[in-house]
Amino acid sequence: MGSAVLKKRLIGVVTVKAGWAVQSIGYKRYLPLGKPEYLAENLDRWGADEILVMSIDRSVRRLGPDLELLKRLGKVGIRTPLIVAGGISSKEEAIEVVHSGADRICIDALLRDSPEEVHAIAECLGSQAVIASLPVAVVAGGVKWFDYRSKALREFAVEVRVLLENGVISEVLLVDWRHEGMFAGFDQGLIEHFPIPNIPLIAFGGVSHHEQIKQLLTKEAVSAVAVGNFLSYQEHAIQNFKTQLQESPLRRAVFEGIDAGV
């Protein structure tokens, strides 16, 4: 996956809790931002390569995916490829999410609860439609997986390693949960020590400025960088990032009514 050949992506993230978009800080604090469909609409207009809408409380509350939110997203006419995370617990629900407008799905809890169901989803939708969300931390020179339900750090289960190593999942959303919401917080050691080789990584958590993104994009394993909280501080943040990253292997930036020529 040479960076000189393949163009990488800048993904805008909308974190949703109890139906509202929130600023998430370290998986502990949540500050309200407004209606998620409005934030997603802005990311669409501003030129994100993909939009990840992540409902962080659906699996914990066993509510299933938020199909009502998907309907609202459909009404605002988003053209940018849409990734949906949160509440998916079966192949049937994954299919329903895609039929409701998502281009891809992102899963976390299901990786722990039923790896065989993840395999069934990939067989049905194709591995390119499935992303694994892995909140992780570097501990004693190795990467441990954070279980947000039990609040414990664990080794990767053998079944999950098999899914990642065998191409059942297309990409990993590598979440630095400890530094989420912190300026310049992403720990690049997560990439260096990630134990499963040859799977594309999406760096997320504490990504806040263009120099940090530029450095992440130089990593061969990194296929994309995802930014959440720090897109909410100013209008046209995605355009600004892409303008400042013209020499990086990002996809050419095209905004609403503007061809930035990147």
Describe the structure.
Helix content is 28%, strand content 28%. With 262 residues, the chain is an alpha/beta fold. The protein has one domain: Aldolase class I (TIM Barrel, Alpha-Beta Barrel), CATH 3.20.20.70. The strands form two sheets. Strands 1-4-5-6-7-10-11-12 form an eight-stranded parallel barrel, surrounded by four helices. Residues 1-5 and 257-262 have low confidence and may be disordered.
Strand content: 25-35%
Report the major sheet.
8 strands, parallel, barrel
CATH architecture: Alpha-Beta Barrel
Please write the string of helix (H) and strand (E) elements.
EEEHEHEHEHHEEEHEHEHEHEE
Order of neighbouring strands in the sheet with most strands: 1-4-5-6-7-10-11-12
Q: What is the general shape?
A: globular
What is the count of DSSP helices, taking H or I runs of 4+ residues? Answer: 9
Q: Work out the radius of gyration.
A: 17 Å
The CATH class name reads Alpha Beta
Query: Total strand count, please?
Result: 14
Low-pLDDT residue spans: 1-5, 257-262
Ends: how far apart?
21 Å
CATH topology tier name: TIM Barrel
Mean pLDDT, all residues: 87
The total number of structural domains is 1
Query: How much helix is in the residues?
Result: 25-40%
Label the structural class: alpha/beta
According to CATH, the homologous superfamily is: Aldolase class I
What is the topology?
Elements: E1 9-17, E2 20-25, E3 29-34, H1 36-46, E4 50-55, H2 67-75, E5 82-85, H3 91-99, E6 104-107, H4 109-113, H5 115-125, E7 130-139, E8 142-147, E9 152-154, H6 158-165, E10 171-176, H7 189-193, E11 201-204, H8 210-217, E12 222-227, H9 237-244, E13 254-255, E14 258-259
Parallel strand pairs: 1-4, 1-12, 4-5, 5-6, 6-7, 7-10, 10-11, 11-12
Antiparallel strand pairs: 1-2, 2-3, 7-8, 8-9, 13-14
Helix pairs in contact: 3-5
